[in-house]
Amino acid sequence: MDKEELLDMSPAEFRSMARRGEWTSDTVGKIARGYVNANLAIVPQDVAFEFLLFCTRNPAPCPVIDVTEPGNPHPSEMVAKEADLRTDLPRYRVFENGELIDEPTDIKKYWRDDLVAFLMGCSLSFEWVLEAVNIHFRLIGDFFTSVPCIPAGPFHGPIVASCRVFENSDLAVRALQVSSRHPSMHGAPIHIGDPAAIGITDLSKPDAFAPDPPARLPEPGETIMFWAAGVTPQAVALQAKLPFIITHKAGHMFIGDQLAQEQAAL
Fold first, then answer.
1. In this model, does residue 69 exceed pLDDT 80?
2. Which of 127, 124, 86, 114 is nearest to 248 (CA)?
3. Nearest 5°: phi and psi at 70?
4. Given Cys at both, which of 27, 79, 148, 218 links 75, Cβ 3.0 to 4.6 Å?
5. What CATH class does 3-121+241-263 carry?
6. 55 near 206, Cβ under 8 Å?
7. pTM above 0.85, yes or no
8. How many whole angstroms separate alpha carbon 31 and alpha carbon 10?
9. pLDDT at position 117
10. Interior CA angle at 139 toward 133 and 144, to 5°?
11. Of 157, 156, 25, 150, the residue nearest 91 (C-alpha)
């Protein structure tokens, strides 16, 4: 299947492909052009309220778009019809006591009747919108910052931020305007300019969740912008040493049935 066929694929077609194990690599800018990408975090019911409270207190990194009933692996139909969160992402991450123990292509063997799944918006969704209005940028990667989340129960840790570079300030301003209309996809950037101001000392070294080499680094005259990232719950899992949590693997997203532009705030 060529690049255009993948981009023209419907979300349901892609979820079926992932469910069959026919796509196990990342989805970034490759699948179902224009549709919502979502981050995933799955926690036991006994901490689900506290995790929801954590998300409510930290809407920039954790903008909740759906929560399942305990033991139910299916999101609501308004998010994705007939989807199964145990199988419909290309790859997952399983943590025990703050340690990564597995990166499976499905989580059937880990699923339990007490698990609650959270789908959270992703900035990869508004990237489709930026592309549609010819706002070009380079995605450098995800970085741990020195900006703390507001804790809730056992959930605490730093915000992880995604870094994008724009050739000039005009494009950066337009990107700010577009992203601000999408609070369910992390909304406006949390920082513009000097990475060191939020604790990032080396843009050539994205964090361990996204180990791919970064794009061409910023050059004089370019604008650097940082958005809160949906891998923040993984940072929380590491720092809080939660007994058990499942997340998506960074860049291996759940793709819902809504177009990103449909979720824009009016």
1. yes
2. 86
3. -55, 130
4. 79
5. alpha beta
6. no
7. yes
8. 8
9. 97
10. 130
11. 25
